[in-house]
Design brief:
6-stranded antiparallel beta barrel; 9-stranded mixed sheet
């Protein structure tokens, strides 16, 4: 009998679902069956308390319920991780574990906890909904429209625009990176970002000598680790020219008048 046949059967169908939650390079695999471990495609899925809401066409979000102390949920208790969380749900029937279907793919938008922190509820939106909004890429403005290091900017995200060294102190959302100021100068990293590996990164709000103030602290303890710091850009033509020698690729309109004569007159 096929998967669809089991779905329609009133007696033979017994659905099992596998849940794969990914956050950066960390993947959490679980299932809703009574079996301790289920192996699928070479990966082990472990028995866990996991519930989901109804999946329907056109729905805005799907709710996934997990214990509040689940390793995935715990990363949202204090600050939101720098990586994107994703969910994939597989389904098959007990009588035929060779016919496995992907029934849902989505992006985790938020995680809410009950008052006693015992339960966490993930709000997940379908992949098709998460990336269907069109945002104007270019506007008539003095500031550069390019994203630093993108294809239009043409600046390489490598040396000399990357600095790598050891983190010597972590206090809240500030980190100290060895010899940054003496090598690159104070303020070099303002509005840049710092990366812990390829997938976890934080915006730099301010560089004060070797101390970086981040938008949010890293979830992992980065003390003693070697991180990459990337230069920041003020997105004005002066910095583009003096810091990056990239005036030819400046993506703004630097000579836009600041006075609107239709409002103030000549």
């Amino acid at each position: 009998m096929t998967f669809d046949g089991y779905e329609m059967s009133q007696e033979d169908g017994s659905r099992i679902e596998l849940f794969s939650l990914a956050l950066g390079s960390d993947i959490y695999r679980m299932h809703d069956d009574i079996t301790d471990i289920i192996n699928y495609a070479g990966d082990d899925y472990f028995k866990a308390f996991v519930e989901r809401g109804r999946i329907a066409t056109g729905q805005e979000h799907l709710t996934i319920t997990l214990p509040g102390d689940h390793d995935f949920s715990r990363q949202f208790t204090t600050i939101a991780p720098g990586q994107l969380g994703t969910l994939t749900i597989y389904s098959f029937h007990r009588a035929d574990d060779t016919d496995v279907r992907v029934i849902y793919k989505g992006v985790v938008r938020s995680v809410a906890f009950t008052a006693d922190m015992s339960i966490s509820r993930l709000s997940v939106v379908p992949v098709s909904e998460a990336f269907d909004k069109e945002i104007p890429q270019r506007t008539f403005q003095a500031a550069c429209n390019n994203v630093l290091f993108d294809a239009d900017c043409k600046i390489s995200a490598d040396i000399p625009h990357k600095y790598t060294n050891v983190i010597t102190d972590v206090t809240g959302n500030t980190i100290t990176i060895q010899s940054l100021s003496s090598t690159k100068g104070n303020g070099w990293a303002n509005a840049g970002y710092v990366a812990n590996g390829a997938l976890d990164y934080r915006l730099i709000l301010e560089q004060n000598n070797d101390v970086l103030t981040l938008s949010l602290p890293f979830y992992a303890n980065v003390l003693g680790l070697t991180l990459d710091v990337y230069a920041g850009c003020a997105h004005n033509i002066g910095v583009c020219d003096s810091k990056f020698s990239n005036r030819v690729n400046f993506g703004g309109c630097p000579y836009v008048p600041t006075k609107n004569i239709f409002l103030t007159g000549l």
